[in-house]
Design brief:
This protein has eleven helices and 17 strands. It is α/β, with parallel strands linked by helices. The chain has two domains: 3-143 and 304-338, Medium-chain alcohol dehydrogenases, catalytic domain (Quinone Oxidoreductase, Chain A, domain 1, Alpha-Beta Complex), CATH 3.90.180; 151-283, Rossmann fold (3-Layer(aba) Sandwich), CATH 3.40.50. The strands form four sheets. Strands 3, 4, 5, 8, 9, 16 and 17 form a seven-stranded mixed β-sheet that branches. A six-stranded parallel β-sheet has the order 12-11-10-13-14-15, sandwiched between helices. Strand 16, helix 11 and strand 17 form a beta-alpha-beta unit.
Length: 340
Amino acid sequence: MGKMKAVFIKEPGKIEIIEQEIPVPKKGEALLKIKYCGICGSDIATYTGNQPFATYPRIPGHEFSAEIVEIEENNLGLKPGMVVTANPYFNCGQCYSCRRGLVNCCEKNETMGVQRDGAFAEYITMPIERIYDGKGLPADTLALIEPFSIGYHAVNRGNIQAGENVLIIGSGSIGLFAMLSAKLKGAKVYVADINEERLNYAKKLGVDGVIDSGKHDLKEEVMKITDSHGMDVCIEAVGISETFLDCIENVAFGGKVILVGNGKTESTFNHTVLVKKELNVFGSRNSLKDFEPLIDLVSITRVDINSLVSDVFELRDAAEAFECLKNLNKSKMKVLVKFE
């Protein structure tokens, strides 16, 4: 079918644009032409060698929008020319979790860009049942639905309620998508980080308050906000031991801690604090059920998720984009790569 360009991570620290054959769809698959692909923190972790689940060599990417090029007759109403997004998590269908319907907790899950090749290519194939109609949303907005779903799922895991005080530690894109999701539930939401520029994004998106934990004592600020009770909910969106322990320390007795950050560091603490405070601790992974509701939500309410996009790079400059994020460029928030 010809050649296409793709972003290729040969091994940690080595990234380049390569040419390879355009894939041919199998029975039950569609051929998609990528329009936008977002760079997730997990993609950077794959690039730097800090992604605990990655295998190499690897084409990264799982946050994307695309146009359907070829597709067989289907009962989902999907046709060539439609702009879509897709579920990038491949479950085995056979493990104990899958048999119980907990497919997002599949023991053998393979995420695009991590355990299998991803969407940083001009063309990909996808199983038809994993593709979602974009319902007229712009292609750059559709590429944000997957990261939005991670924050949205985390908030739903903790059953966050209207009026609860919620602290999100980490103002990267997942943390801010969690912030937006908690605000949609009616919670009072605060974001803590050491990155002032990213905290400014939280302010623009309507957060109730920010805490610059590089300049202020986090616990003191939390106690001021909550009349010394602690937060009803703490969401960890960084993935390091220090911020996990910050959540344990700053959540109220009988409160909830939701862990969405992903990393390799280990934590050492006296687990008796979990008993003493009678805490509810939730791990939160990916979401398979929230793509369509979020497409509808963004379509109907026009939640301004595009405000999280700080930069759009052309495909030829994708390696530069990865380098910028690898070096923790403080001016970058959500970065998209444009394939059109």
